[in-house]
Amino acid sequence: MATITPFSASPVAVDVGVVPPARAWYTDVWVRMLRRKPLGTLGAVIVLAMLLAAVLAGVVTPYGFSETSLRERFIAMSAEHWLGTDQLGRDLLTRILYGARISLYVGFGAIGIGSLLATALGILSAYWGGRADLFLQRLVDAWMAFPPLLILMSIMSLLGPSVLNITLVLGVAAGIRESRIVRSVALSIKEHTYIEGTRALGSGHARITLVHILPNVMPTIIVTATTGLSTVILTEASLSFLGLGVPPPYPTWGGMLSLAGLDHMYRAPWLAIWPATALSLAVFGFNMLGDALRDLLDPRLKGR
Amino acid sequence: MKRYILRRLALAVPTLVLVSLIVFSIMRFMPGDVVLRMVEGQAYAPTIEALRHELGLDRPAYRQYLDWIGGIVLRGDFGTSYWTRQPIFDEFVQRFPVTLELAALTILVSVVLGLLVGVVSAVRQDTVSDYVGRVLAILALSVPYFGLAVLVVVLPSIYFKWTPVWTYVPFTTDPLENLKILIVPATVFGVTRAGPIMRITRSALLDVLRQDYIRTAWSKGLPEQAIVLRHALKNALIPVVSLVGLQIPLYIGGSVIIEAIFRLPGVGLFFFEALTRLDYPVVQSVNLIFAAMVVGLNLAIDLTYAFLDPRIRYH
Asked: Which of A65, A187, A201, A295 is most buried, judging by how many CB atoms fall within 10 Å of its CB?
């Protein structure tokens, strides 16, 4: 008889072969996304395209984003200007590509600040409990009563439009809003017996919050951050649309649609169409990506 | 029930105090001085000190706050606009019907659309109509309402030589003309808000349709229409109502942009113009009034749950 390899004959080995290789959750998410979430994958592709546009904006177009040319005003789509030009003869495609840069900069910046703030506020509020929690949550309640656009417009009008200001303001606003969600998750984690166990083993506050609570809140933070991105990008666009966000000459999609430029759009409708399309695509991409990530990361929905 | 309402009203008081403190602190303590901006931007007064004194901002902060809030609580005095010198509250009351009508029509459009598509999607789950409905909802979610509004204003005027009517007619003067003016902005805004309503209707209805009492209704031989509309939909409405309630601040914020694009003389336009004229007393008070409304509406929404679902009792 031929030699029997331990792998081919043993039924145990066959069973082991069926078990998928253990992957860390952050790679596993993308693999499952590719397999099961076509729309989420599409969203990821759009987001990736946006990232590429933002990185390569300076390389792929021959024009500068604020390069005016009075002889070439209001040109419709042509070989030199694929998406046409605006009232100052600036190339629209160039401005759309650079616009991705601003949208992503403000979006990721604000969400970064917001997630840090939301994590700190949420975990501390849940962990402290008692009066501190009560007071913080009433403050959050009061803040949530404001129509977001109104209060953000007021603040931006006081601070003055600038990229840094809008990133900070949107970040803090997102942080306060999302701290609610982080807090609710941290509250339930705090009650688990293993937390009591680590406390009995002599862990301090810092160790319990950072090593034991934080990692379990992470998926929630990632999900709120990705779904929050589209909201932040839209809010930045609304504020820039009203002239209270990113100041000219920086090209932003909201600013290109702007209320102030409405008169020019009657002459050149593409001035409205392209920025609106770019903005919708970006929001669509982030929404789909966020939805898919939520389905894949939320432990309550796992296996569905 | 009555005790519950009273307790909720009592709890609203500290929230409102915090709300007023937040607006006040933003206007006073943010980097970027209100008075400096007003003088530099609109030359409201020859010197900063003169305007500071005239607005009463040279007094200690706690006095300013107490005067402002005291005027509102004791005399219903929300201050005067620095641009028109008119009482802010009068202007607000005069313009509020426009904003309210716009919001009501917007909510109507988004709820009707959202429910319609959501119910069809849920009942015909995993069929072509379900997919079409879900894709429509996602598209509606992604299109920014101000982008859509700009396109609706600009494109028809270029290609069809038709522009939305710009001169506003009050409802009391000519109801039909008034509706004709408001229906375009309300539809534009409503369509972009229908997406979330559709999605939540679909998922809530799918949940309800799998419950035992629905199976009982089927086995009694009831027609599908009666089961879906009378038995299931009513129980699926609670998340829809709470979503609409949660979205009310967004409707108010959006009304600023919609009213600015369509030139509707509502509170949103009042606020936006005050902001461009750096008329900060108006900005401060309008923020407060709207936040107070949101607090009140949240209470009202909580109370409607009891009507929708008799099992919910408040103590």
From this structure: A65
Q: Compute the average pLDDT of residues A269-277.
A: 87
- Residue B39 tokens read as 């003088």
Chain A contacts of B271, Cβ < 8 Å? 150, 153
Q: What's chain A look like in SS3?
A: CCCCCHHHHCHHHHHHHHCCCCCCHHHHHHHHHHHHCHHHHHHHHHHHHHHHHHHHHHHHCCCCCCCCCHHHCCCCCCCCCCCCECCCCCEHHHHHHHHHHHHHHHHHHHHHHHHHHHHHHHHHHHHHCHHHHHHHHHHHHHHHHCCHHHHHHHHHHHHCCCHHHHHHHHHHHHHHHHHHHHHHHHHHHHCCHHHHHHHHCCCCHHHHHHHHHHHHHHHHHHHHHHHHHHHHHHHHHHHHHCCCCCCCCCCCHHHHHCHHHHHHHHHCCHHHHHHHHHHHHHHHHHHHHHHHHHHHHCHHHCCC
Q: What is the ipTM of this complex?
A: 0.87
Q: What is the pLDDT at residue B163?
A: 67
Residue of A150, A266, A273 lying closest to B256 (CB–CB): A150
CA distance A32 to A296: 8
- The distance of A60 to chain B (nearest Cα, Å) reads 27
Residues A46/A282, Cβ–Cβ less than 8 Å: yes
The length of chain A is: 304
Segment B24-35, tens digit of pLDDT: 998 888 777 788
Inter-residue contact B37 to B274 (CB < 8 Å): no
Q: Does A283 lie at the interface with B, CB-CB under 8 angstroms?
A: yes
Structure-token pair, residue A13: 């080995």
What is the C-alpha separation between A128 and A125, in angstroms, rounded?
Answer: 5
Low-confidence residues in chain B, pLDDT < 50: none
- b/e map A266-300, b = 16+ CB within 10 Å: eebbbbbbbbbbbbbbbbbbbbbbbbbbbbbbeee
pLDDT for the residue B131: 87
Size of interface A-B (CB pairs under 8 A): 151
Supply the DSSP symbol for B263: T
Q: What is the pTM of this model?
A: 0.86
User: How far is the CA of A237 from the CAs of A46, B176, B191, in angstroms?
Assistant: 18, 34, 19
